[in-house]
Specification:
six-stranded antiparallel sheet, alpha+beta, 6 helices, binds flavin mononucleotide
Length: 274
């Protein structure tokens, strides 16, 4: 039976067929490209870890460089390493009440509401097994968005190696200046703890007095972006504090060694065996 293209029924039929064809094309592309998207997500995350650790150079083979990095898991309450499946996703775990803890408002300085019970850490390990850089995932609210990034510490568990954010929606030119290499360049060499062993690092509103004794713990705030700056300070205080990686860092600092060891001793060591 011939269909009159110009009739209402014909128009609806053509529109319907176009929709079906488009839906098939989009669905096929989405399913077909998923493995590539997953691969790119992993590559991007690895690049960000390397960048925070100061190990990234443009054009490098990211996967090859990442072979020096161990991904480990830490129980945030005890600070101890725990075994988790490779597929563990810390951000997903933070959204699941079964694998996260609800923070009281007095504890939630980074405004993240829920904290995962287990966090991942990345360790850059030298050929002879020494841990050279400890890379911690950090997150917290800025002005418009939750900032997600990595803070890298040296093997003394005190000196900052780098800080970088891989996801946020702060305003370009204002809060977005957290991505500015010049601002990120202020972080390396800053020290977390003062002589009494207290957490002293802070992001100021304004500029650091370079002559002050506290300057080695302080980072300039971003002009015109006080709220994002405060968000960065808050997330640093949270993740280095007792509800974040504090217990883990405390264990590292008090351990007699932070060199890689594959013994099964109770003593705190970083095992080569994942
Ligand atoms: C369109 C618009 C976007 C803004 N984006 C940011 C931002 O991303 N981060 C931020 O801290 N402040 C942002 N601000 C400025 C804040 O509203 C606030 O004025 C500022 O944080 C105060 O910083 P100051 O004390 O350094 O001037 C924005 C303001 C406007 C009008």
């Amino acid at each position: 039976m011939a269909i009159n293209k110009d009739s209402v029924g014909g128009t609806l039929l053509v529109a319907f067929l176009v929709c079906v064809v488009c839906a098939i094309v989009v669905a096929t592309a989405a399913v077909g490209l998923r493995p590539l998207q997953d691969e790119n997500r992993v590559l991007d995350m690895r690049m960000n870890v390397l960048q925070a650790a100061g190990l990234y150079e443009p054009g490098m083979d990211v996967n090859a460089a990442f072979e020096r990095i161990q991904r480990r898991f830490v129980d945030l309450d005890t600070g101890e390493f725990v075994e988790m499946p490779e597929s563990y996703d810390q951000r997903r775990a933070a959204r699941d009440p079964a694998t996260s803890s609800r923070l009281a408002s007095s504890e939630d300085i980074a405004s993240i509401r829920n904290r995962p019970d287990v966090a991942e850490v990345y360790l850059s390990v030298s050929d002879d097994g020494d841990v050279q850089v400890i890379i911690l995932p950090v997150s917290g609210y800025g002005l418009w968005s939750t900032l997600h990034g990595f803070l890298a510490l040296g093997s003394d568990v005190n000196t900052v190696v780098g800080l970088g954010f891989y996801e946020h929606a702060e305003t370009p030119g204002l809060g977005g200046e957290i991505d500015n290499p010049r601002w990120k360049g202020i972080w390396p060499g800053k020290e977390l703890y003062n002589d009494s062993g207290d957490l002293a690092i802070e992001v100021l509103k304004g500029t650091v007095d370079s002559g002050a004794a506290s300057a080695k713990h302080q980072i300039d705030g971003l002009a015109g972006a006080t709220l994002t700056t405060k968000g960065v300070d808050n997330l640093i205080q949270f993740w280095l504090g007792s509800k974040g990686f504090g217990p883990f860092l405390e264990r590292l600092r008090s351990a007699s060694t932070n060199s890689v060891d594959d013994s099964e001793d109770d003593e705190f060591t970083v095992s080569v065996v994942n």
